[in-house]
Amino acid sequence: MMICLQKPIVDELVEKFKHQATIARVNIEHEKELKAEYGITSIPTLILFKDGYSVEKFVGLQTEDSLFQKIKLYTSIGDTC
């Protein structure tokens, strides 16, 4: 199951960005409204938010490096408002 492979990668990123970003998990089987709101049709799906807005969506297994680079990019950008 890909979600099992993605979890340790996300856990590592939680540690690396603990003072710069909030990384949270949501079980879409328990959060049907969020699943519908963000159009989640498969897992794992990772969504990056900046200033409360969805800015990137990744569907399927992602490498640590690709996620690291995207999170780093958005944490280095100032507020968009």
UniProtKB/TrEMBL annotation:
Any Pfam family matching the protein: Thioredoxin
Keywords: Disulfide bond, Redox-active center
One term under GO cellular component: cytoplasm
Thioredoxin domain segment(s): 7-72
Disulfide bond is among the record's keywords: yes
GO molecular function: protein-disulfide reductase activity
Family: Belongs to the thioredoxin family.
Protein name: Thioredoxin domain-containing protein
